[in-house]
Design goal:
Blueprint (H helix, E strand, L loop, with lengths): L2 H14 L4 H4 L3 H14 L5 H10 L3 H8 L11 H21 L5 E6 L5 H18 L5 E7 L2 H9 L1 E3 L8 H7 E4 L2 E4 L7 E5 L11 E6 L3 H4 L2 H13 L1 E8 L13 E4 L2 E7 L3
Parallel strand pairs: 1-2, 1-7, 2-6, 7-8
Antiparallel strand pairs: 3-5, 4-5, 8-10, 9-10
């Protein structure tokens, strides 16, 4: 499958799925490989034939939607962001919760892929935050994704060493068991994380959260109207003074969403206090 043909096909189909082509431009090879495999499975000659197939097989659009999911993740991805979480935001949330008499801090990791992001948060919480607070207040994380296979992998908590390359060495030694090529998250750091299959376009987890991470998903791959709709829903799940983390190259759609940038960091926002 030629890159130009694939790019033209994606520019045709993505808007129909409420995706945004610019977000896929740099990662399209992942999608193109899946499209090539899918047309082969269907015995089709190429993407022109696949377009015709989509016209007569409406159920195939759901398959196409799944082929357009980009799955790139690793522990401590974007060092600056996780440094701020480690040294500022997570300690602040812990102290605030204790001051307010709350018995837990609640976090939602949207588009969690294989679990690297929520596991990173739990590792930071237990190794870096709790020793400073002096009290054992739990961080409860709901981690959602649309891909059941990825969620099953996340639940196993076993990763190749390459996915840990950004994680500080001192954290690796404390949080993982090591056998051959694989690193397994130790039991203590797998507690209080719940993985759930959800499509953020259709469903959001219940409850109000102190911290929401929605990185490299909504504000990269969805069209602007859908971004605006989902952002409103996300903010509705975020408590006053809570934090929203997006991808470092993402920008929010314009509008009054009761958010202010935190410490002039483009991808970290705090909900305006009521």
């Amino acid at each position: 499958m030629k890159d130009l043909q694939c790019a033209e096909f994606m520019q045709w189909c993505l808007p129909l799925l409420r995706f945004s082509w610019p977000g896929f431009r740099k990662v399209r090879k992942q999608v193109c490989k899946r499209l090539s495999r899918r047309t082969g499975e269907l015995g089709l000659s190429g993407l022109v034939a696949y377009m015709e197939y989509l016209g007569s097989h409406h159920e195939e659009w759901q398959v196409l939607d799944s082929l357009c999911r980009v799955t790139i993740s690793r522990f401590y991805r974007d060092k600056r962001v996780f440094d701020v979480l480690r040294f500022e935001i997570l300690p602040t949330l812990a102290k605030r919760a204790l001051t307010d008499g709350e018995n837990e801090v609640r976090c939602w990791s949207a588009g969690c892929c294989s679990g690297e992001e929520p596991y990173t948060l739990q590792i930071l919480w237990k190794i870096c935050v709790l020793p400073v607070t002096g009290q054992d207040i739990p961080l409860r994380i709901i981690a959602t994704d649309t891909d059941q296979e990825l969620l099953e992998r996340a639940g196993k908590g076993s990763f190749m060493g390459s996915s840990l390359r950004d994680l500080p060495v001192e954290l690796i030694s404390q949080a993982f068991g090591h056998s051959g090529k694989f690193y397994s998250v130790l039991k203590d750091f797998r507690e209080n994380i719940g993985f759930a299959e959800q499509d953020i376009r259709k469903e959001l987890p219940d409850g109000i959260f102190h911290l929401i991470l929605c990185r490299n998903l909504v504000f990269t791959y969805f069209d602007e109207v859908l971004q605006r709709e989902i952002l409103g829903e996300i903010i509705g799940r975020l408590m006053s003074g809570g934090f929203l983390i997006t991808g470092i190259h993402e920008s929010l759609p314009e509008g009054d969403f009761s958010l202010k940038q935190y410490s002039n960091i483009p991808c970290i926002y705090q909900k305006t206090m009521a």
